[in-house]
Amino acid sequence: MRTAIVGAVLLVLGGIAVATGLLPVPEAVELWDRVWPILLFVVAITVVTELAAEAGVFTVLAQQTARWGRGRAWVLWLLVVVVAALSTIFLSLDTTAVLLTPVVIVMARHAGLNPLPFALTTVWMANAGSLLLPVSNLTNLLAQHAMGDPTPAAFAALMLAPALVAMIVPMVVVFVIARKSLLVRYETGEEDGIEDRVLFWISGAVVVALVPLLVSGLPVWLPTSIATVVLGVVFLVRRRSVLRFGLVPWQLVLLASGLFLFIEALHAAGLATLMATVSGTGESPLALLRLSLTGLVGANAIDNLPAYLALEPVADSPARLAALLIGVNAGPLITPWASLATLLWHQRLTSFDVEIRWSRYMLLGLIVAPVTVVLATLALSATV
Question: Phi/psi zone of residue 196: left (φ > 0), alpha (ψ -120 to 50 degrees), beta?
Answer without folding.
Answer: beta
